[in-house]
Specification:
There is one protein chain. With 205 residues, the chain is an alpha/beta fold. The protein has a single domain (2-204), classed as P-loop containing nucleotide triphosphate hydrolases (Rossmann fold). The protein contains 9 helices and 8 strands. It has helices spanning 13-24, 31-44, 52-61, 89-99, 102-113, 126-130, 144-152, 159-172, 193-204; strands at residues 2-7, 28-30, 64-67, 74-77, 80-81, 119-123, 136-141, 184-187. It has a 5-stranded parallel beta sheet. Strands 3-4-5 form a 3-stranded antiparallel beta sheet, covered by helices on one side. Strand 4 and strand 5 form a beta hairpin. The longest helix is centred in the N-terminal third of the chain and has 14 residues, at 31-44. The chain starts with a strand and ends with a helix. The relative contact order is 0.22. Bound molecules: adenosine-5'-triphosphate (ATP) and the ligand Nc1ccn([C@@H]2O[C@H](COP(=O)(O)O)[C@@H](O)[C@H]2O)c(=O)n1. Keywords: ATP-binding, Cytoplasm, Kinase, Nucleotide-binding, Transferase. It is an enzyme of class 2 (transferase). Belongs to the cytidylate kinase family. Type 1 subfamily.
């Protein structure tokens, strides 16, 4: 059984997916971490992020592995744990360019589809493209200002700067970010984290 939780940037996908997955006793899978890992490695190798051949060669010679756990995902490149380096502003600003490359999307999708069920999968196109046959689909939204205020609690930048970055990322991610027609769309603005998790669990039960 697969539950998909898609949504715009910083709408709460990973926090909510983690809470839902823990309540269900299954792992959750953060697809964005794989796009972030490809971006980080491209930046570190000083590659042009718009060039798929260079990135794919790098990913082929230095394979990246996603470790899905209920409490939080980790991403490994060999023995190196990349996870703590994946949420920098630098990666945030480059990731949508990398995610627009069809070859990189195929690389991510293949890894996700190889994972053993059951799990909760979060991202942008989990319910539309990667797992269209999933029986339970959700899509999280909230205004850019609310999302920026939440994110400002975990980043050094101020709210307007974060809001501008989120809006830019939303725009660059538009193509792959449409909600599945059979997804329940949840405006998380008026809800706290547990409220969103409970809304989803109620629907699942
Ligand atoms: N309903 C909510 N109420 C208050 N804070 C929330 C809510 N949902 C998420 N948050 C907080 O908002 C921040 C962003 O959440 P999270 O990282 O889960 O979003 P995301 O969609 O996975 O982000 P990204 O797209 O950048 O990976 C976190 O600090 C989280 O605790
Ligand atoms: N299914 C997905 C997931 C992510 N992306 C791209 O990765 C970026 C980071 O994802 P977060 O979930 O950590 O925000 C995101 O901005 C997208 O560019 C994607 O395309 N498809």
């Amino acid at each position: 059984m697969i539950v998909t939780i898609d949504g715009v940037a910083a709408s709460g996908k990973s926090s909510v997916s983690s809470g839902v997955a823990q309540a269900l006793g299954v792992p959750y899978v953060s697809s964005g971490l794989l796009y972030r890992a490809a971006t980080l490695l491209g930046l570190e190798a000083d590659l042009d992020l718009r060039g798929a051949p260079g990135l794919l060669k790098l990913l082929g010679t230095h394979p990246v592995r996603l470790e899905p756990l209920a409490g939080g995902n980790r991403v490994w490149q060999g023995e190196r744990d990349l996870t703590d380096d994946l949420h920098s502003t630098r990666v945030d600003r480059g990731v949508s360019v990398v995610a627009a490359l069809p070859e990189v999307r195929e690389w991510v999708d293949a890894q996700l589809r190889a994972l053993p069920e059951p799990f909760v999968a979060e991202g942008r196109d989990m319910g539309t493209n990667v797992f269209p046959h999933a029986p339970h689909k959700f899509y999280l939204t909230a205004s850019a200002r609310i999302r920026a205020e939440r994110r400002a609690r975990e980043r050094p930048e101020d709210v307007p700067a974060i809001e501008a970055d989120l809006q830019r990322r939303d725009e660059l991610d538009t193509v792959q970010s449409a909600p599945a027609p059979d997804a329940l769309v949840i405006d998380t603005g008026p809800l706290d984290l547990q409220g969103v998790i409970d809304t989803i669990l109620t629907r699942l039960r």
